[in-house]
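Input record (one chain):
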Amino acid sequence: MSGDSAGQLLGADGPFAARHPGFVARAAQQQMADAVEQALEERQALIVEAGTGTGKTYAYLTPALRSGVRVVVSTGTKNLQDQLFFRDLPRVREALAVPARVSLLKGRANYLCLYRLNKALVDPRTRVRRERLTAVQEWSLRTQAGDVAEMGASAPDDALLGLVTSTADNCLGAKCPDFAACHVVKARRAAQAADLVVVNHHLLLADFRLKEQGFGVLPGADAVIVDEAHQLPELAAQFFGERVSTRQMHDLVRDAAAELQAFGDMGGLAQELDGLAKAAAELERPFAAIGGRVTLRAFGGQAGAASALGASRTALESCAAALKSFAERSAGLENCALRAADLSARLERIAAGEEAGQVRWAEALGRGGSLHCAPVEPTEDFRRFMGAHPGAWVFTSATLAAGEDFSHFSRTLGLDQAATLRLDSPFDFRRQARLYLPRGLPDPNDPAYADAVADMLDPLIRASGGGAFVLCTSHRALLRIAARLRTLPYPLLAQGEDAKAALVERFAAAGNGVLVATSSFWEGVDVKGQALRLVAIDRLPFGQQNDPVFEARLQAVRERGGNPFSEVQLPRAITTLRQGVGRLIRDGADRGLVVLCDPRVRGKGYGRRVLASLPPMPLLDDAQAACAWLAGLETAA
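The corresponding structure, as predicted from the sequence alone:
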């Protein structure tokens, strides 16, 4: 076996076919495995688009595990991390019979912090959560990894998690009295000793910022493999910038106040903390009016925003000075002093004014929001990021190209010299799927467009007997379309009514449900079988108008003499559209219909480029043919 290529190992005569009943050799998977193996050996950069069903996870894990080099594998979310580590990785290791040491590493907020748990247990302000804290304490005596996911699903904004986990801001590091038993430290040590470490994109990018400060936690890797790589440009731009949120300010007040419990002579500091809490609360108010992202200049024009921002800058500066004078009293106060100084400095940089190559914006989030500045294009910063891990880099996803063109992805990250490989899905879209482009709909900018889309979809959904995803490009369209479709005799689920995972689970269990959703459901949703047989997309996803980050990128293209529509807007819309279309066929037995509602696909010149980028699905000419196809699917089931 040692003389075989990675692709041969994934062939009909390889160990996977021998050890895993039902394993089917796929030419595209073998081709990808050989390309990844070559990139690892030659320490080169490779971009691979592998269509749905290729089996890209096995295609990169196989050469990675037998390469003999240290590899970091990064994926998009914590859920995908767990799936990769607990399901896919053990199967590949077993098939290859390799002794490679593997490790799972998440961000520190995913691990129980013993110091903060003990603080919370004795803090009189947490009495209302006493029962839940006691349950966490009991679990803390049993857990080995300290991963809070072991306790079961929690809402992302569950306040309890903030009490018993740490962040980069509030961790005491080696000065913590519980450092020897720290779950984060144990996980990092395991990662540093491993041959292959599974992380997520947030941790990978955060580690780069730590490395610049001399505190990186990931092992010195010979290779980095980035799965779900289409998410990277947006995330990279955010990580290479600055951010201050009202929540960070409130957290600082909470943690500093908890440290004050042990001292009785710091009334002046308590007064400064009260001032910061009031300033943060005042800053929350203008966020309520913006609803999403706006430029920092537009945010400053909201009622009370300029004074609130000024009060926050003053309060942070005063708090930082007050905390510094008491920092020697405890490791916790020292940490709070450093945090206050850092937040103050970041807020000053964000508020400093316009700067070439930078975009500044405010974003509503929860009760408050956050203030940002970031590079318009992360190209140079990402090159420095790759320089921190010299060696092979592999970027893969089901959607990285617009047709055959990878330039939108590669140019953004400075990967102009990377090799590229595009592999079509092994699924038979000509047999399994149909595409319907309805006629007669108004222009997407017409106020009546969402209602017209819902009315057009109604008979199609009835013909299919439910089993429909309706993917919208805006929350407003979601609400209008969901309201219009509630007359259907099927369970109707709308994004926002429950957590994403719960909605998908209910949809799959119903078998005849209708799920109306927006951006976060365009990817990472996997419903196989008869439960999903119709995917409708309301309009081409050209991006949110007036989004300051997106507009700044378009302007940067204009300034260098490029065409922002052909270089940014259309390629981005195509890759996002392909993510949405990819929800339909997830298995060789799946069958269904894609409805692309936007009349611009037929009426605009770029429509041909859009259609050419989609899987080769036969086109249905009219509603009658579409209904007949859908009715046939229900009959066949």
